[in-house]
Automatic annotation (TrEMBL):
GO cellular component, one term: plasma membrane
Keywords: Cell membrane, Membrane, Transmembrane, Transmembrane helix
Main location: membrane
Membrane topology: Multi-pass membrane protein
Any coiled-coil regions, as ranges: none
Domain SSD: 232-359, 621-748
Location in or out of the cell: Cell membrane
Protein name, per record: RND family transporter
Length: 769
């Protein structure tokens, strides 16, 4: 208390400090801010699954790739299109250092035989005569390793696959590709393109959301507070909190993740709560004690609000800090820096409002306005609500239980999805290109199944290859799987061409000696580096690439179940199964997301119950105070389940935010109600006074927070819009729950005589309640 009072008495020092810190943070943000969209950077590097994946990716050269679609409406098998594909293939490697290798129809190898000898030659001979092109088409359609995988089955489109060894500017590549269009249509897909689009859209979205939420909040605050001065003070507080959050992040060289773009909107919406309650208390004292000096007004306002505002800020911060239990880096950093922003807003609110009284004097408060405010507080709404709570408590309890039952049912339907493409509208170019690739080729996402053994030449054994082939066939029965590729696929193709495509020749030979011979012939005739993508040098480890027609982590469970079915089969050959690739990483990401959500919720509730119990010296109050936010959490998940909204890296944040903000309402209500009761008011009088005074502030607070978060519904990212709508719902639920079921439960504790005896307040805190 002394700290806030002494600092508030030096308003110029306070303003100077805020200005200098703001300048430092602005410069840091301008110079150091980096938006991170690489999914690999979202993962904990020490997690066993990611370490195993990274090891396999290094062993088999598994890299991110950009997919360039070349589509000709009349078919790609013409001299002009083939020559253009070849020219693009060459130009990509020459003009982009980030591209390590390029595979296209003109560079892909064809496995065939000639007089009993295995030959590996490119499909494209360099000739573009009609006869040469017709022969190439026939060879492509006879080779399942490329037909339907890199070339569409209707012959109208093909893929140019550019593997990356470094990050690439997807926007520059997109622009570069357009020069090759006509009559062919060119499209660009792949995870690097999606990440690049996110990196471009993220700042643009923030540039729209930030000013929009500021304008909206200014209008809302002025309409609610009817004070230009207090509106300005509130905006200074929330803008400073945002600068502190992002400024510290950039000063510590921590990248800004896509989900962090919501922090400004959240901090602006959350931070106004402290200003609203300060405004409400200051004006309450001015109406009750109009002759107070400015020093007395500042001191009494601080005494009244320092405890509840600090506690509400701490509980809000706890909701965010609990997210640090997640192993998902964006969620962890979001929680940390959002909490720092909230605490800085609390600190400045407790300093700036009293300082403004010392600097500018008491707020102007006309007699007519005072009378109007007094009458508004004595309106019929609070009296009607009080009558309902006192005379119909069972109805409130019944409705609350019904809401909980429906919410629990809806919660059982919640599903998890970490799809990056979910960030784009279905009619966006990114989404449409991805859909085109998934419809005509193997797919844009991959899962790599890694088989590890110790025996040299293990993967030359026919029985091992047969097990691999059988698993691949079962995997390809899933409509989400485009196709699969492994050493077994190569061996089947070699066997087929050596047996001149006789019936049943596309199969695994029975003889290990024949398998070894095929592989030896391939190494002599083709590019050994191609085999390095599916098997290691000693044939002790193998890679099965599964192409997926969706990047949704939700679709992987059925696929992994098929693989798990084959674990005992491979275990007979002392082979262990692990995974790698972006598809698997997305799945583990979703598992960590769910785990983190459960842990953060448990931590939030436990700590908040303890803090409330300590604050009010009563464990029962601690438990009762969390009831509205518990209902809010169930309603949130219930609505998500009923509306089919997935739990994603964005929506996973909602409940922790709702808990942190929602409990503020309970703290303010319980603080004022208890002060009233200890001041001698009856249960009815305390309820009426609390509903009129604090209830009004809670409603104002909820409206302001809802208005701020509603701006997210204008975001270009669908998940952000879902977050905005759900938090609006959560705030309304928390406020309504505080003003209904919490009051009923407090009355129940009162009647059982277990509420007041546990409560001890300092006399100075109660003097002017």
């Amino acid at each position: 208390m002394h700290f806030f009072t002494s600092f508030a008495k030096r308003p110029f020092l306070l303003l100077f400090t805020v200005l200098i810190l703001s300048l430092i943070f602005v410069l840091s943000i301008a110079n150091n801010a980096v938006l991170e969209t690489d999914l690999d950077e979202y993962m904990p590097k020490t997690h066993p699954a990611f370490m195993a994946s990274d090891k396999a990716e290094s062993l088999f050269g598994i890299k991110d790739a950009i997919l360039i679609v070349v589509e000709h409406p009349e078919g790609i098998y013409n001299s002009g299109t083939i020559e253009k594909i070849d020219a693009i293939t060459v130009a990509l490697q020459e003009e982009f250092d980030a591209i390590e290798s390029v595979t296209s129809l003109t560079t892909a190898d064809n496995i065939k035989s000639d007089d009993g000898f295995l030959e590996v030659e490119p499909f494209y001979s360099g000739k573009t005569s009609q006869a040469a092109i017709s022969q190439m088409q026939a060879e492509v359609e006879a080779n399942p390793m490329i037909y339907g995988r890199n070339v569409s089955k209707d012959g109208t489109a093909t893929l140019i696959i550019a593997e990356l060894n470094n990050d690439i500017d997807a926007d520059v590549l997109q622009t570069w590709v357009t020069q090759w269009e006509g009559p062919e249509k060119l499209m660009v897909a792949g995870r690097p393109v999606v990440e690049g689009a996110l990196a471009e859209l993220g700042p643009k979205d923030m540039a729209i959301m930030f000013p929009l939420v500021i304008i909206t909040m200014i209008i809302l605050l002025f309409l609610l507070l009817r004070s230009v001065r207090d509106t300005v003070l509130n905006m200074v507080i929330v803008l400073f909190g945002t600068l502190v959050s992002f400024g510290l992040m950039t000063l510590l060289n921590i990248p800004i993740y896509a989900v962090d773009t919501m922090i400004p909107v959240m901090l602006i919406a959350i931070g106004v709560a402290y200003g609203i309650h300060m405004h409400n208390t200051i004006h309450h004292f001015m109406r009750s004690y109009p002759d107070l000096s400015k020093e007395e007004l500042a001191t009494l306002s601080l005494k009244q609000m320092v405890r509840p505002i600090i506690m509400t800020a701490i509980t809000t911060a706890i909701g965010f800090v609990a997210l640090m239990s997640s192993q998902v880096l964006p969620v962890r950093y979001f929680g940390l820096f959002a909490a720092i922003g909230v605490l800085s807003e609390m600190l400045l609110a407790l300093l700036l409002f009293p300082a403004s009284i010392y600097l500018l004097g008491k707020p102007k408060y006309k007699k007519a306005k005072a009378d109007f405010e007094t009458q508004r507080e004595k309106g019929t709404l609070s009296d009607t609500l009080q009558a309902l709570l006192l005379h119909r408590p069972k109805m409130i309890v019944f409705i609350s239980i019904a809401v909980l039952i429906i919410g629990v049912w809806g919660t059982s339907k919640v599903w998890i999805d970490t799809s990056f493409l979910a960030n784009f509208e279905e009619d966006s170019t990114i989404a449409q290109t991805d859909q085109f690739v998934n419809s005509n080729f193997g797919g844009t996402s991959t899962l790599n199944i890694i088989l590890n053994g110790d025996e040299p030449d293990l993967f030359k054994h026919p029985e091992v290859l047969l097990a691999m082939d059988s698993m691949q066939e079962d995997l390809e029965k899933d409509p989400i799987v485009g196709n699969t590729l492994s050493l077994a696929t190569f061996i089947k193709q070699m066997n087929q061409v050596m047996l001149e495509h006789e019936d049943g020749s596309y199969s695994i030979p029975d003889s290990q000696e024949l398998v070894s011979q095929y592989l030896l012939l391939y190494e002599f005739s083709g590019d050994p580096e191609t085999l390095e993508q599916v098997v290691d040098y000693e044939y002790t480890s193998a890679n099965i690439t599964v192409q997926l027609k969706s990047d949704s982590s939700a679709v992987l469970k059925d696929i992994l179940a098929v693989v798990d079915y084959y674990r005992p089969v491979f275990a007979e050959h002392a082979i262990e199964i692990t995974y790698a690739g972006s598809g698997y990483k997305a799945f583990i990401f979703s598992e960590l997301l769910l785990e983190g959500q459960i842990i953060s919720l448990a931590i939030s509730f436990a700590i908040i119950i303890i803090l409330l119990a300590l604050m009010f010296k009563n464990l029962r109050i601690g438990v009762v105070g969390t009831v509205p936010i518990a209902i809010t959490a169930v309603v949130n998940f219930g609505v998500m389940g009923l509306l089919g909204i997935p739990l994603s890296s964005a929506t996973a944040l909602i409940t922790s935010i709702a808990i942190g903000i929602g409990v503020d309402y309970a703290i303010h209500f319980l603080e004022h109600y208890t002060n009233e009761r200890l001041g001698g008011s009856s249960l009815e009088q305390a309820t009426r006074s609390t509903l009129r005074h604090t209830g009004r502030a809670i409603i104002f607070n909820a409206i302001a927070v809802m208005g701020g978060f509603a701006i997210l519904m204008f975001s270009v990212f669908p998940p952000n819009r879902q977050v905005g709508a759900l938090i609006v719902l959560n705030m309304a639920t928390s406020a309504l729950g505080t003003l209904t079921i919490l009051v009923v439960l407090v009355h129940y504790l009162e009647k059982k005589h277990v509420f007041l005896p546990k409560r001890i307040l300092d006399n100075n805190t109660r003097s002017f309640s």
